[in-house]
Amino acid sequence: MNAAEPARFDLFIDGQEISGQKGERATLKDPASGHAIASVAIAGRDEALHALEAADRAFRESPWAQDDGALRARVLRRLADRLEADAESFARLETVNMGKTLREARGDVAFVVRTLEYASGLADKIEGETIPVPPPRFDYTVREPLGVTVHIAPWNYPLLLAIRSVAPALASGNSVVLKPASLTPLTAVSFARLAHAGGVPPGILNVVMGPGREVGEALVTDERCRAVSFTGSVEVGLRIGEIAGRRAIPQTLELGGKSPVLVLPDADLDRAARGIGFGIFGNAGQMCWAASRLIVHESVRVPLLGKVRAFAEALKLGPGIEDGIDMGPLVSADQVDRVLGYIDAARQDGGKVITGGGRPDDPRLAPGNFVRPTIVEEVPPTSRAVREEIFGPVLSVSSFREVEEAIRLANDTRFGLFAALWTKDVGAAHSLARRLHAGMIAINDPPNTFPQTPFGGVKDSGVGSEQGRKSIEFFTRTKNVLVHLGTPGKRPAPASVRTKPPK
Ligand code: NAD
Q1: For residue 243, what is the domain's CATH number?
Q2: N or C: which end of the chain has fewer CB within 10 A?
Q3: How would you classify the pairing of strands 260-263 and 476-484?
Q4: Distance between Cα 232 and ligand 1 center (Å)
Q5: In contact, 181 and 155? CB cutoff 8 Å
């Protein structure tokens, strides 16, 4: 990409690339170098309404919702193939926009390809059921698409988190308005172009970037929005939930986390250390389900911490686009300030930084938003560094003697997205999995997910889940059809004694 001429990315509405009416644009910078990489059109309320109108018309008039799902299955499958063929350019775009390493971005694109394949497989299997009722009646259900669905995505996995809900929404026959995060909209716009070229009808997939408060709220408040899938912070999620609740539309809220990782005395410490490392330093710690609170049995604390520290110190920081880089920059300078603020808070509350703790010394990295992988011990559980989501490469460590204490520490949080367990004791693993308050548990694995497995949290981590077969249920509604089979002109046979006659 030529730094002198940032590439243009416009809004994608009704199959067309357009600028906003006011012509506002933002310049996006590579978080690793500060170089301008893209000029992006900014939507306002008018463009949000335009996108809803296009989506609503396409839903009613295009064949997308109307057929048996064969068209959708075919187009989504084709889209998966096209994305796979273009995977490298998508991964590179994600890396220069968001900062993650190319290896991570390739993994994200591969996940999106699988998500599209999975959604394609479901598109022509959306079935109702027949339900026995008193004769002479026949009852059946059909599942129908909702109409226009709105998808609001965060910046940490820009394409992956957008498409994990867009794909099942499309597979179910809905039309979509996607609002990516303002910092990272590039792959979403590129995806809309690819989808359009691959046969998604105009208006079925629209992308509008713009300020969340103005554009996001305009989208969710409008009566044409029939469901919302939101991934982002708790604060904004609660606001979206309020609006959706007032409008009685279905909502999925995928919010933050402060996930514990429990290490029992019998754990394989080498595997656990690697898993813990990936779980907090992957994506430079900018993961909703980052396993950011290590809770380790006192007897293995010293050897385990030695291994996790060695893992952290071996990570090579640098621009994600370069070969051999293990950890890229954070997404923005604001995010660096936020993370450093939490590290300071941990120190002030008595925490001991055993590695990292600030920006790297390497002058080559000075223009980028880099923070070293950081481990802090002995931070009191009341510290905001332990209670709040940092969203950066910072691991806090505490230890336990009795397993009850470990469970209490693990569950002592407003969040409940994910928890990891490391132990060879199968019985202990499964009984602990039952007692941890989280929507997802990993046993002897770092945070890992697949398009076919549900992803969602409890408590302040959200409502509902994404991914898996259930996503089709979210994006469709059940209609019940009751048929009286009596001969016309004849008195209908009496219903069962328990059934009241119609008034
Ligand atoms: P954010 O809440 O600031 O923004 C998320 C999206 O909401 C963006 O597109 C933003 O423009 C939009 N938005 C902001 N204000 C809005 C409003 N008033 N109305 C409508 N839309 C609005 O979150 P972020 O900083 O982009 O992402 C980080 C957060 O996302 C973290 O808390 C992280 O844990 C969470 N997250 C959760 C998951 C999950 O699956 N549970 C996954 C990734 C990230």
Answers
A1: 3.40.605.10
A2: C
A3: unpaired
A4: 2
A5: yes
Q: Is residue 493 part of a domain?
A: no
Report yes or no on 413 lying in a domain.
yes
* 21 and 127 assigned to the same domain: yes
265, burial (CB in 10 Å: exposed 0-12, middle 13-18, buried 19+): middle
Task: Say if residue 134 is in the same domain as residue 89.
Answer: yes
Q: Do 335 and 223 share a structural domain? A: no
Query: Which residue(s) pair with 452 in the sheet?
Result: none
Among candidate residues 414, 478, 421, the one with its CA nearest the CA of residue 271:
421
Tell me, in angstroms, the distance from the centre of ligand 1 to residue 173's CA.
26
Count structural domains, the chain: 2
Domain range spanning residue 354? 260-451
Do 249 and 287 lie in one domain? The reply is: no
- Please tell me whether residues 302 and 348 are part of one structural domain: yes
Q: Are residues 275 and 241 in the same domain?
A: no
Q: How far is ligand 1, taken at its centre, from the CA of residue 251, in Å? A: 14
Decide: helix, strand or coil at residue 146.
coil
Residues 444 and 350 in one domain: yes
Per-residue burial over 317-342, b if 16 or more Cβ lie within 10 Å, else e, is bbbbbeeebbbbbbbbeebbebbbeb
pTM: 0.95
Q: What burial letters (b/e) apply to 452-464, b meaning 16+ CB within 10 Å? A: eeebbbebbbbbb
Contact 177, 220 (CB under 8 A): no
Residue positions counted in the chain = 503
Residue 147 and residue 35 share a domain: yes
- The pLDDT tens digits for 215-259 are 999 999 999 999 999 999 999 999 999 999 999 999 999 999 999
**CB of 203 closer than 8 Å to CB of 15:** yes
- The residue nearest atom 17 of ligand 1, judged by CA position, is 213
Question: Which two structure tokens, joined as six digits, stand for 37?
Answer: 């990489």
How much distance in Å is there from the Cα of 180 to the middle of ligand 1? 9
pLDDT tens digits, 425-474 = 999 999 999 999 999 999 999 999 999 999 999 999 999 999 999 999 99
Ligand 1 atom nearest residue 182's Cα: 11
Residue 495 lies in a domain: no
Q: Which residues line ligand 1 (CB under 6 A)?
A: 152-156, 161, 179, 181-182, 212-213, 216-217, 231-233, 236, 239-240, 254-257, 288, 389, 391, 417, 457, 462
Whether 225 is catalytic: no
